[in-house]
Amino acid sequence: MICGAASLAQARIERVVEKQFPVAGPGALFAETSGGSIRVTTTPDAVVRVKARQRIRADSEAEADELLRKLELVIEQQGADIRAVAKYERRPSGFSFGSWPPVEVSFEVSVPATFATDLRTSGGSITVGDLQGKARARTSGGSISLGKMGGPVEAHTSGGSISLGAAAGAVVLKTSGGSITAGQIAGPADLSTSGGSIKVESAQAPLRAHTSGGSVRAGLRGPVTADCSLSTSGGGVRVTVDKTAAFRLDASASGGHVDADGLTLKLEKSGRGRDRLAGEVNGGGPVLKLRSSGGGVSIRAE
Fold first, then answer.
1. Which runs of consecutive H residues, i.e. helices, occur in the chain?
2. pLDDT at 91 over 80
3. Which pTM was predicted?
4. Cα angle vertex 149, ends 145, 151, to 5°?
């Protein structure tokens, strides 16, 4: 189904293309667009519904028709999988980056909860609801928001923040321009940002979290089964651990103090001014490495 609406005051015309596909069993959604956002929600029935919103920089319907001839829009079913791709022709010389492409396509897709996702956009945000399958999300110009994920998660953005409700599998979250927040992470996690803070409500080892521009806060639940590293060049580090967890603490702060509360610690090293603390906790084990160059380090047992 195709429908259209014009807004001449803003020199924009919007058209919508909608398709739906019956599916059986777990499948995967691949969606890619170069000028818009992607939103994926869950549906209780075995039907995938795809809506492509085309926002066209045009002053008339005729001009919009001409611009759409240069857009490649594919929405199709391949077995149990769904593919939705919007690509515009190569940008010619003389056009600024902000004015290209003249047709911006955003995808709104509803899928069964068992689906996996592979999503890419260079010009917008990505939002994904609660899904059981593997999730991949990449954007160069927006934020990424993920719900409660039942499989491995990989998300990358160069221009926004990343949020994750929960994950049952391994997690990789990386951004160059925003903060990272996550709820409960059950698998190995690698989180990094160059321009914001990192906050993890609950994680299991191994956990790596690094930022160059903010604070790091994390809760480690259960035993420390593998080495963990949390570091920042622009803020403080705060960690909570299980009071029965056994590990080797290696903590230092060049811009503040290292404080430990509630730990049974066999001290190995302690720096001047309380800027270094190292030793075995509850008999020792994997290494918990904490580093801060712009603030203090705090570790507390609960």
1. 61-68
2. no
3. 0.91
4. 130
